[in-house]
Amino acid sequence: MAIRLEDKKAIVAEVNEAASGALSVVLADYRGITSGEMTSLRKQAREQNVYLRVIRNTLAKRAVEGTEYECVRDVLVGPTIFAFSMEDPGAAARLLKDFAKEKEKFEIKALAVGGELLGADQIDRLAKLPTREQALTMLVATIQAPITKLARTFNEVPSKVTRAVAAVRDQKKEAA
């Protein structure tokens, strides 16, 4: 079905806006996926704040112009689905990696982060990034560790003094 020029411009503008605000992008070949499975994938993407879009390669090449994802132009061959992570850099990678485990025909083509194109074999690097909440938890634990150790050290001083006094008392009782 032919798309009117105005519609093409709107699609390009929409994808360009998403690409400009995205933290990472994952591209996949969706051949062999049913419409029901695609609907399920789209629902999961919305829940994880991942912008998911199937777009013609010619329009996609125009859409990524001027963004840090221009590097994906060479990978745009065959049917391609774009998954842009909007809040969490690893969200799209986790989503498509889990979906690819369930559907053997679904194949991840490439991914890009910070203007660097990575192969499909690098999906684990991106998927294993902690979420924002996990990263904040790790940061708080790292900041809290020295304070906790200092509190334990201060708490240990009176305990050592008490044990030393008790040992001296026990020695005097034995001597007497």
UniProtKB/TrEMBL annotation:
Q: Name one GO biological process term.
A: translation
Cite the InterPro entries for this sequence: Ribosomal_uL10 (IPR001790), Ribosomal_uL10-like_sf (IPR043141), Ribosomal_uL10_bac (IPR022973), Ribosomal_uL10_bac_type (IPR047865)
GO cellular component terms, A-Z: ribonucleoprotein complex; ribosome
Q: Which UniProt keywords apply?
A: Ribonucleoprotein, Ribosomal protein, RNA-binding, rRNA-binding
Gene Ontology terms, MF aspect: large ribosomal subunit rRNA binding
**rRNA-binding found in the keyword field:** yes
List, alphabetically, the Gene3D superfamilies matched: 3.30.70.1730, 6.10.250.290
Q: Does the keyword Ribonucleoprotein apply?
A: yes
Superkingdom, natural source: Bacteria
Look up the coiled coil feature and give its residue ranges: none
Q: Name one Pfam family in it.
A: Ribosomal_L10
Summarize the protein's role.
Answer: Forms part of the ribosomal stalk, playing a central role in the interaction of the ribosome with GTP-bound translation factors.
Report quaternary structure and partners.
Part of the ribosomal stalk of the 50S ribosomal subunit. The N-terminus interacts with L11 and the large rRNA to form the base of the stalk. The C-terminus forms an elongated spine to which L12 dimers bind in a sequential fashion forming a multimeric L10(L12)X complex.
Q: Which family does it belong to?
A: Belongs to the universal ribosomal protein uL10 family.
Under what name is this protein listed?
Large ribosomal subunit protein uL10
